[in-house]
Task: structure prediction
Amino acid sequence: MRHPLLATFAFVLGSLLAAPAVRALEVGQPVPDFTLQGSDGKTYRRADFVGKQGFVFAWFPRAFTPGCTAELGSLRDGADALDAFDAAVFMVSTDPPEKNADFAKAEGARHVLLSDVDGSVAEAFGVAGSGGLFAQRWTFYVDRDGVIRAIDTSVDSGNAGPDIARKLGELGFPRKK
Result:
C-alpha cells in the first residue's frame, strides 16, 4: 500500500518538473512585450531592443541552484565570445531582482540577469513551470526586428555560453565592429 504523503510528494514533484502545458511562442513569431527588472537596477523593455538590437533570453529555473550556477558560470566564462556579437544576452528567471542581483554578484556575472517576479513574461514565452514557481531552462534568440529566430529547449547548462555564441553565428547575428 502506498503512503499518502509519498504519493502527494510524487504528484507535486512530477507537476513541477513537467513541461509547460502551452508553448506560446514559435520561431518566426514576434517576441511579446516585456518589462523586466535587471540585476543592475535598470528596467529593460521590448521597446529598448526592437528596431535597434537583437537579444537572447536564457531562461533559468532558480538562482543559486547547481544547474543555474553552471549556466551562469558558462555565460560568464564565455562572455568575450558572446560580446563579439551585437546582441544583448540576458539570463531570465522568476526570482526577485534582489536574489538575481545577489546571484550575479556571487558568481561574477558579466551579463545582466532579469527578473519576472509575477511570471507573466514567462507565461507569454511559454516557459512557466507548473504553478508558475519557476521557468523552464529554454533560450530564445530574437533578431533586431523583434522576431524569434530560434528556441533552444534542450539547453546544456554547462556549455550555455559557447552554445549561445555558436548559435548567434549560425543565425547570422551581426558582429560588433
Summary: Confidence is low (pLDDT under 50) at residues 4-22. The CA atoms of residues 50 and 146 lie 5 Å apart. Helices lie at 4-17, 66-77, 79-83, 97-107, 120-125, 160-170.
